[in-house]
Design a protein that fits this description.
heterodimer; A: about 425 residues; alpha+beta; 2 domains; two-stranded antiparallel sheet; 15 helices; about 55% helix; elongated; B: about 375 residues; 13 strands
């Protein structure tokens, strides 16, 4: 009898925890607010609720005597949330930059290869591509496209002074028209045929010597920065110059890619068919969205996964810490709890008050951790490998959704960490506890 | 030592709590181990042979150097032998299967005694134009065997005969590294530079880097200067650096990500340590009456101090060892997958040593205050309290 009862209790507790954690993951703020309202109503309006509130009051008033335990819960859970939010904000910021790169109305044409670095297109092929139907045409009937080269320059970083690679994109005169999102925010654009460049604002934040009027040494030639541009995507980490002049400077004839603006996104199939059926070409045709999405997924995925794994390990550590101190708290307060039970307090208010105490501390910890991560990492500038070894510069993104996720983790740890000791407190036989020292 | 059973009994005085604490410690040291794996990956070290290799690259990124420079470098005093290599890209079957691949001079492996290659296989590479040598990890990953053909796609050179960027090589040898520290090098492919250069649509006679082995007595700076001065004010100015510097500049490309992850995980580790420290200290505090009993039985102050310290160090050591063991398994599993964008190698003695030092330090700090209190305990006061 006793055994089956115990088994039932264990199964019940396990099921409850699993269900709660499952519900937690999918909870949105509205449901959460509703739960809070219900909880407050219960605490105020019902008798067990009022008893629980009274017990919670007593417990909170004695918190100061248990500073160590309180710090363990707050610091542990705060740490989990800070780590989670910080790492996820990195992967989100990176993802946002990459996702903004490319759209369905521009097409990237590469020679039979999947990356820009290994592609090579001759001017003759570019001329053939320009004649194909489906591309947006200007008033003179010419296709709106940009034949581009991609190189790398090594420049000192502002932070460390160490040299890092920066992508140098040679673009056609109509690059801004083709891309649509490139906007000069300072100075002017480069003049074709001259040794002038414009710099993405991301690149300028990280690399030194890229202010307007400064010069960059390329293969013993001096190139002048004449403007800065914004594009809110990966191109912000690049330098733009005239493709043909750059090709001459590096003694590399030809181009790596052709970016074409379509008349409409629907024209893609027609354009692609026209290119792939032309036997003179042998090219790989993709929308820029498709190209940038597929070529750079792994790093974001890896960071995302690393963030979750590290946060999970941290969460396990913090959970055991929380369990530990909650058990100890219940133990040290066992006399007090037993007295209340003897006075006629039910198990329910006892359980509720212990759980609420842990969860309140968890919420406090979570909020502190989230605030810490936000204050340090929001709009923090990071850099990593971009395509073809140039740096990719991005900003960390501590979004509201991320803070919410962090808070959910905190509450989940508080819930599990408080629940088991609370059950113990609820089951405590009054007579035994009173006799115990 | 004779008090060990007593310490052990004290440790498991409250079994449930000790287990919970052990799990927290385990989590902390699991993080510590993983962090160290990342740290080692981002701070590549050279083997002894690597310390003699100097790398010369173009001052301007993405450009090659005339391969003919190699013979000039051979005449530089203090340079023993010279070879060259170019990064050539490519993947096997699926674009996701990318790895590091180099086209190298046929005598390349003479400068790499740290790549263990059977003499017969090394000779086969020297004699086979279409030959390829791969690292053992990579061979295991794709189940390659010596003698088979390996087709690589989308290399950085266009094949003259097919007009495509696909090349096929004969696998003539598989190497192991002699030093665990450079284990990630086993994920590379080496093919013949002359085959690729002469078989390309545009034969450039260029090499991405020229590698010189210097006399051990020669300083790195002097060697770099002696080599760089040869090309000064030409259209192919060079920068020469040590292998370690070259690797560092490569890993710096991951930019802040490695640094930030390390910083965050370090913070996480110390937070966990703080938590467990607090809990462990409390456990000792609770046993004050027991300690007082021991003292009234005649245990000396120093013995009590030692026992309490031993207990907290033991706690850290038990949890920490389990955590590091788990980290070792996890890291070797990740490196076996070979899919990580950051090369990871297995956790070695270095990490374990650092971990053990960490356990002892953490255990001592955690136990210090309770142990001190236990030593200063007045038996009468402590016993009458309860």
């Amino acid at each position: 009898m006793n055994h089956s009862k115990q088994l039932l209790a264990v199964l019940g507790t396990g099921g409850l925890i699993a269900a709660a954690c499952g519900g937690w993951i999918f909870m949105n703020p509205a449901t959460f607010a509703a739960l809070i309202v219900l909880l407050v109503a219960w605490l105020v309006a019902t008798r067990p609720g009022r008893l629980a509130a009274a017990m919670l009051g007593i417990a909170l008033s004695t918190l100061r005597e248990r500073t160590g335990a309180t710090i363990v819960i707050i610091a542990g859970i705060g740490g989990v949330v800070a780590v989670l939010v910080a790492l996820q904000s990195m992967s989100q910021g990176l993802q946002r930059t990459l996702h903004n790169t490319g759209d369905t109305q521009t097409v990237i044409v590469l020679s039979g290869s999947s990356t820009e670095a290994s592609s090579f297109l001759t001017p003759e092929k570019v001329a053939i591509i320009a004649e194909k139907p489906g591309a947006l045409q200007d008033r003179d009937g010419k296709a709106v496209l940009s034949a581009e080269t991609l190189g790398v320059v090594r420049l000192p970083k502002k932070s460390s002074g160490a040299r890092g690679n920066l992508a140098l994109r040679g673009v056609g005169a109509r690059a801004a028209e083709v891309r649509g999102n490139v906007r000069i925010v300072q100075g002017r654009t480069f003049r074709p045929g001259t040794q002038e460049m414009i710099v993405g604002v991301g690149a300028r934040r990280v690399f030194a010597g890229l202010e307007i009027g400064q010069t960059v040494d390329l293969n013993n030639q001096r190139w002048t920065i004449v403007g800065a541009f914004e594009s809110a995507d990966a191109h912000e980490s690049e330098l733009f110059g005239d493709a043909d002049t750059l090709g001459a400077a590096f003694r590399r004839p030809g181009y790596q890619s052709v970016i074409v603006r379509l008349a409409a996104p629907e024209a893609f199939d027609q354009f692609k068919a026209a290119l792939t059926s032309d036997r003179r070409l042998d090219v790989n045709v993709r929308t820029t969205l498709d190209y940038y999405t597929s070529s750079r997924g792994t790093l974001v995925d890896t960071i995302h996964r690393v963030a979750n794994v590290i946060a999970a390990i941290m969460a396990i550590g913090a959970l055991f810490g929380a369990l530990n101190v909650s058990y100890t708290t219940v133990q040290t307060r066992s006399r007090e709890i037993a007295t209340l039970r003897a006075l006629g307090f039910d198990a329910v208010p006892v359980i509720a008050s212990v759980m609420l105490e842990t969860m309140l501390l968890a919420t406090l910890g979570g909020a502190l951790g989230a605030a810490l991560a936000w204050s340090v990492f929001h709009e923090f500038t990071g850099s990593t490998f971009g395509a073809d070894l140039g740096a990719l510069i991005f900003q960390f993104d501590v979004s509201g959704a991320l803070l919410w996720t962090g808070l959910k983790w905190a509450l989940a740890i508080g819930f599990v960490g408080g629940m088991l000791p609370a059950m113990r407190a609820g089951r405590l036989p009054a007579a035994v506890a009173l006799r115990a020292t | 030592m004779k008090f060990l059973p007593l310490v052990w009994a004290a440790l498991f005085h409250r079994r449930a709590r000790t287990l919970l604490t052990l799990f927290s410690v385990l989590a902390a040291f699991l993080l510590f181990g993983l962090l160290d794996g990342v740290r080692i990956a981002f701070n590549p070290v050279s083997s002894d042979a690597g310390n003699l290799r100097m790398f010369t690259v173009s001052r301007f990124a993405m450009r090659g150097l005339p391969q003919s420079l190699a013979s000039e470098y051979e005449r530089v005093p203090g340079v023993r032998q010279v070879t060259w290599a170019s990064f050539v890209g490519g993947y096997f079957q699926d674009p996701k299967n990318r790895f590091v691949s180099f086209a190298v001079d046929r005598h390349f492996f003479a400068l790499y005694p740290d790549y263990l290659l059977a003499p017969g296989q090394r000779r086969a590479f020297e004699e086979t134009r279409v030959g390829a040598i791969v690292g053992e990890s990579l061979a295991r990953r794709f189940n390659w065997k010596v003698g088979q053909q390996i087709p690589l796609r989308e290399m950085l050179r266009t094949n003259k005969t097919t007009g495509a960027k696909d090349w096929t090589f004969d696998l003539v040898g598989i190497f192991k590294v002699s030093d665990q520290k450079i284990e990630s090098d086993e994920n590379s492919v080496f093919v013949r530079w002359d085959y690729l250069d002469e078989g390309s649509v545009t034969s450039t006679h260029q090499a991405g880097m020229i590698i010189s082995e210097i006399e051990p007595t020669m300083s790195h700076d002097a060697a770099a200067e002696a080599i760089d001065v040869l090309s000064r004010n030409s259209d192919h100015e060079t920068t020469t650096m040590t292998e370690q510097a070259l690797n560092r500049s490569y890993f710096r490309q991951f930019g802040d990500i490695g640094l930030i992850v390390s910083a965050i995980v370090t913070a996480a580790f110390f937070t966990l340590l703080l938590i467990t420290g607090n809990v462990a200290a409390q456990a000792v505090r609770e046993r004050t009456p027991q300690l007082a009993t021991l003292k009234s039985l005649g245990f000396r102050d120093v013995s009590v101090l030692g026992m309490v310290l031993t207990e907290s160090v033991l706690m850290m050591a038990l949890g920490g060892t389990a955590g590091l063991a788990l980290a070792t398994i996890a890291v070797s599993w990740i490196s076996r997958l070979g899919k990580s964008p950051v090369p990871v190698s297995t956790l070695g003695a270095e990490t374990w040593l650092a971990g053990i030092v960490m356990m002892v330090i953490a255990g001592t700090i955690v136990g210090a205050l309770p142990a001190w209190r236990a030593m200063k305990l007045k038996c009468a006061d402590a016993l009458s309290d309860h």
